[in-house]
From TrEMBL:
Biased composition (Basic and acidic residues): 415-433
Record protein name field: alpha-L-fucosidase
Enzyme Commission (EC) number: 3.2.1.51
Domain Glycoside hydrolase family 29 N-terminal: 25-324
Residues flagged as site, May be important for catalysis: 257
Highest taxon of source: Bacteria
Keyword match Hydrolase: yes
Region (Disordered): 414-433
Pfam families (alphabetical): Alpha_L_fucos (PF01120)
Record-level GO cellular component terms: lysosome
Xref: InterPro entries: FUC_metazoa-typ, GH, Glyco_hydro_29, Glyco_hydro_29_N, TAT_signal
Keywords per UniProt: Glycosidase, Hydrolase, Signal
């Protein structure tokens, strides 16, 4: 049980660290099967998160119901105002593809308890309220039409259901609530064809045993044999989920989920937008460390994407269209030290991703591998280089950055690129006193 004094940030940090806890038993699945199921995911590296719900009507963050103490009876009236325009998911999927994203994960039900899908469990869902239609089906159809992978976000915590809090102290309430949640999970896994990702969230207030998570996840795998699941049902499953930070898991698959401003759901006053450069740098950092980057949009109540999100993702997409080789299907990269560039790797090719362009010369210190050739990734133009004992210099480059927001130099080496900065510090010749 989560202490009521915990902040959401503290709680999510605990959840993302949960796989390390010996008390949690791994869902039985072979590593070979996991590798098979996750092959596409490792190659994808980049996905879109969508937070959309009744909170989008308020436009004050997706936690408004709890943070503002809004009564359930008052909040549920928002369902009468939630009337999305026709098929907004087509716009989301088109933008995701344009941005270079390979999969999408949409909130089928957030903590507010409102379901975007047709469910037998409640009338508090889009098809039975003002929206008048199954918004999850629209989303699935739109994602598949763009050739992307389909993911479902599904909140276990529910602020609307009458048993959503008392279930921790009342066994009859727990039985009702767990059956309610398991039924919804079954509906999501049964009614929409092949689903690629199930993304649980916030397992408050029960333990894994209370949720009967292993039973629920076994049911999910039976219905969707190729699905991958995150760690937020309090069972480790397939991948970890550091939130609003990039933190590689040791010996585990991981995906950093992050916002473009400071809010997941639509927040009309939140103007703290990340730059396209910041988003590309985050993507590259995730790729270098062998993880994925799930970047969020928070559509308005009618499903429109905020123009700032469109602008950012369009710029990111212009970069990935030319430099995607530095991201997709990349391998973990041990080269990391520079003040103005980050690194990714695929096989023996090192991608030097320069975010602060220094001018006509770029240098990498401590590179131990022999450089065979170099080129600008976006154009294929060859780049001259000089390799010395303690550095490699790439010369004859334009004074101004040839690409935006980051210029990538593809460096072909004679083996896996390695960097030894301790050797530079210890063995580089010093002047005689």
């Amino acid at each position: 049980m989560i202490h009521p004094g915990f902040s959401r940030r503290q709680y999510l940090k605990l959840v993302s660290a949960a796989p390390a806890a010996s008390a949690l038993a791994m869902q039985p699945t072979s590593e070979a099967d996991r590798e098979r199921r996750m092959k596409w995911w490792h190659e994808a590296r980049f996905g879109m998160f969508i937070h959309w719900g009744l909170y989008s009507v308020l436009g004050r963050h997706e936690w408004a119901m709890e943070q503002e103490g809004i009564p359930v009876a008052e909040y549920e009236k928002l369902a009468t105002q939630f009337k999305p325009k026709p098929t907004p998911a087509k716009e989301w999927a088109a933008l995701a593809k344009k941005a270079g994203m390979k999969y999408m994960v949409m909130t089928t039900k957030h903590h507010e308890g409102f379901c975007h899908f047709n469910t037998s469990t409640t009338k508090y869902c889009a098809p039975k309220t003002a929206a008048g239609r199954d918004l999850v089906k629209e989303y699935v159809d739109a994602v598949r039409a763009e050739g992307l992978r389909v993911g479902f976000y599904f909140s276990l915590m529910d602020w609307h259901h009458p048993d959503g809090a008392r279930c921790v102290k009342d066994e009859q309430a727990r039985r009702r609530f767990v059956d309610y949640v398991h039924t919804q999970a079954r509906e999501l896994m049964t009614n929409y064809g092949k689903i690629d990702v199930l993304w649980y969230d916030v397992p408050w207030p029960l333990t894994a045993e209370g949720w009967e998570s292993e039973k629920m996840n076994a049911m999910v795998r039976k219905l969707q044999p190729d699905i991958i699941m995150n760690n937020r049902s309090k069972v480790p499953e397939d991948f970890d989920t550091p939130e609003q930070r990039i933190e590689a898991s040791k010996g585990r698959n991981w995906e950093a989920c992050m916002t473009m401003n400071d809010s997941w759901g639509y927040h009309k006053a939140d103007d703290n937008w990340k730059s396209p450069k910041a988003c590309v740098r985050n993507l590259l950092t995730c790729a270098r460390q062998g993880g994925n980057y799930l970047l969020n949009i928070g559509p308005t109540a009618d499903g429109s994407i905020p123009p700032e999100s469109v602008k950012i993702l369009t710029a990111v997409g212009a970069w990935t269209a030319k430099n995607g080789a530095a991201v997709y299907g990349t391998d973990p990269c041990s080269v990391s030290r520079s003040n103005y560039m980050s690194f990714t790797r695929k096989g023996n090719t090192l991608f030097a991703n320069v975010h602060f362009w220094p001018g006509s010369e770029v240098a990498i210190g401590g590179l131990r591998s022999k450089v065979l050739s170099a080129k600008l990734l976006a154009t294929g133009a060859p780049v001259k280089f000089e390799q010395e004992e303690f550095r490699v210099k790439f010369t004859g480059l334009p004074v101004n950055a040839p690409d935006s927001p980051i210029t990538t130099i593809a460096v072909e080496c004679d083996g896996e690129p390695k960097q030894d900065m301790n050797r530079v510090r210890e063995e580089r010749p010093r002047l005689q006193a």
